[in-house]
Amino acid sequence: MSIAYMKPMLKKAQSEKYGIAAFNMIDYNSARAVVDGAQELNAPIIIQLSVKTIKIWGFKPIGDWVRSLSESVDVPVALHLDHCKDLDVIQRCIDAGWTSVMFDGSSLPFQENIRQTKLAYDIATSAGVGLEAEIGAIGGTEDDKFVAEDDAILAVVDECVEFCQYFPDLAVFAPAIGTAHGVYKGEPKIAYGRLAEITSAVDIPIALHGGTGLAADQFSRCISSGCAKVNISTMHKLQFIQGFTELKDQKPNLGEPIPFIEAQYEHMKTGVKNMIALFGSQGKA
Length: 285
Ligand SMILES: [Zn+2]
Description:
Blueprint: H1 6-16, E1 20-24, H2 28-40, E2 45-49, H3 51-57, H4 59-71, E3 77-81, H5 87-96, E4 100-103, H6 110-126, E5 130-135, E6 140-142, E7 145-147, H7 157-166, E8 172-175, H8 192-201, E9 206-208, H9 216-224, E10 227-232, H10 234-250, H11 257-279
The site of zinc ion has 6 residues, from loops.
C-alpha cells in the first residue's frame, strides 16, 4: 500500500493500548528490515529519520525507497521526520512524500516553543501531514543535540494542557517523562505518575522517546498509560553494526559484500520483530 498517515495509526493504538514501533532507518537495507519485519508480524510500523541521515541520502531517494518498500507490503508504513527545528527541512520532507514530521522546540522557552511549533503545525496540517511536538527536555544525545541527564526536565502538566490547546490536530505529543536518548548510564527513571497525569489531561497519543534500554515491564507500563509511538533508534543502530561485525569475526577472510548485507538485514529484522511483539502491535495492521 502507499505510505500511510501516522495519526490514524496512533489513534487506534492509543485506544487499543498497544505501541507502534518507530525505527530510525539508517540506509535502504535497514528500512527493508523494518518493513519486512512488520509485514511478517502483520503490524503497523513507522520509519523515521534524523536530519543527519537525510543529509547523507537526500530527501527524494529516501522518499522513493520507503514508497517502494511500502508498496511491496500490505501493512501500514508511515514515514516520519524525527527531531527537527528547521522549517525548510520539514517542507522538503513533505514535498518528498513524508506523511508525518516532528518539530522539536523543546530547547526554547515555553511561549517561543508554542510560537515556532505553530509555524510547523500550519505547514504540516495544510499539507494533510501529521505533526509531532515536544515539551520538556529529554536527556541524552539526539543528532547533534546533547542534554545532560541532570538537565533533563520533566514536562509540566499545566504546560502540556496549554500547549496542546493550541494544536488540536496534533498527531502525537512528546512530553519529557524521564527517558533519555542513547544508551542509559544508570537505571532509567521514568516518571509514571507524571505520564499518567499528562495522559488523563491531554487526549493525544504520546510518543515515548529513548526506548533503547528500557525493560519489557517499563515498555508495557508506558504503553498502557498512553504511549502509542515508541521510538527505537540506538538499538537498531547497534544491530546494524553487530550484524556486520559478528560475520566479520566468524569469517575474517570473507571478501564478498552480499553476505554482510544479508547478515545486517537478518540481525535488524530480528530486533524489529522482537520490539513489535513486545509492544503488542503484532496482528494490528
Ligand atoms: Zn527522540
